Amino acid sequence: MNSELGLVKRQFGHRARLALSPAEIRAVDDQAHAARTMWNCLHAWWQMMPKEKRSLTAADTAIRQARKDIDFLAALPAQAAQAVLKTYFQAWKNCWDGRADEPNFKGRFRSVMSVDIPQGRDLQIKRVHRRWGVVNIPKIGRVRFRWTKDLPVGKQANSDNRITGARLVKDSLGWHIAFRITTLDRTPEPHPGPEVGIDLGVTIPLALSDGNHHDHGRPPRLPNGTSDRDKWMNPDEKAKLLRLEQRAAHRNTFRKPKEKTSRRLHRTYDQIRALRAKATRRSIDWQHKTTTTLAKQYSVIVVEDLHITNMTKSAKGTVDNPGTNVKQKSGLNRSSLQEAWSRTVTMLTYKTTRNGGTLVKVPAPYTSQRCSACGFLTPGSRETQALFVCKNPDCGWTGNADHNGARNVLHQYRIGHVAIPAAGRAVVRRTRGVKPATAR
Fold it and tell me: How many Å apart are CA 286 and CA 297, to the nearest integer?
C-alpha cells in the first residue's frame, strides 16, 4: 500500500551528547566493559566448541550461565547482552558473505566503548526544554541529552515514524547516544537539476566541472614553522596541541619499561584526543553541509572511483630497494586521509538518492593528466599543482588543473564508459574532421 502511495520506509540515526554525572559515567563505563567482556567470552566459546554445536541457542545458554558465574557481567542489562550475542553472530555471517574479516577479541584500549539499547520503548524520551531532553537508560536512570533535532516522541510517534532503539558510544568528548529512527518518507521526484563532475583533492577539496569549488577555509599556518597537520584547528588550538604533545613526550621519558602509565600522562593523552575529536567534528560538519548543498543543486553527481588504501601506501620500500621522497609522501598521505574522501562519497550517495538524484563513479586513471578540451595525454601538461596547460600544439587549452580533472570525470560519465578498456586506461577518439578545441 505504501508503494502505491509513493511512500518508502527509511532508517537513519541521530547522535546527541549525554550530560552524565561522575557516578553515572562510572556506571556506563562498567556496562561498556561488561559488553566487551561478553563479546570476548563469546569468541572464546566459539573457538572451543565444535562446528556442529555452534548454534544461537547454545550461545544464549552460555552467556546466561556466564552472567550468573561472573559478578561484574550483571552490570550489563539482559537486552544489551542479547544484542552483543546477535551482533557477534551477524559478524560471522558478514565474514562468510565476504563483507568483512573474521571477528576477533576486543582489546581494552583499541576498541570503542559502546552499549546497545535494542528496544525503543525502554528509552522513554521526553523533551523538557528547548535545548534539553531526558532519556531512560537501563540500570542508569533518567539522563539529560542535548536536543538538537526533533525526534518522533509522544504524539508524533506511530508505527511508521518511531525510535526503534539506541546505542551509547564513548569518544574523546564523552558519552553520546545514537538513536535509531524509522520513518516513512514520500518517494522523491526525479531531480531536474544539471549534471556535474567532481574532482576530489587536497588543495581544493571539491572542484566542480562547472568552474565552482568548495573549500573549507582552513586556518593559517603557525608562525614558528609547525606543519599544518590539523587543518580544522585554529592557531591557538594548534599551539596548544603542540605543547601537549611535547609535554606527553617529556613525561613519557620518565616511564620505565613495562611500567603503568601515570595519571598525569593519561590526562595529557585525554586532552590531545579531545582536541583531535573537536577537529574531526568540524570536518564532519563541513562535509554534511557541503554534500547537502550539492545533492539539492545537481541531479547527477559524478566522482572518481578512488582506491584510498592504494593511494596512501607508504613509500619507504624495503631494505634492498628503499623508497624516495618518503617524508613528502608521508605528508601527502596524511593530508589525503584528513580529507576523508570516502566519507564524502558516502554522504553524497544517500543524500542524492533522498533528493531524487544519482551518484555515479567512473574510473580514476588519467583524469588529472588528460586535457578536457582535446582529450589528449601530452607529457608535461600539468605544469604545477594548480595550472594545466595542454602541450598539444593544436589545442593549447589553459585552466585550473582540478577543474580540468572534474571536466574529464563528467565526460567519462557522458560517453557511457565506452572508451574505458578493461585495463583502465582511457582512450578518447575524436570524430574525423572535428577540431580538438570543439571535440567536447
Answer: 17
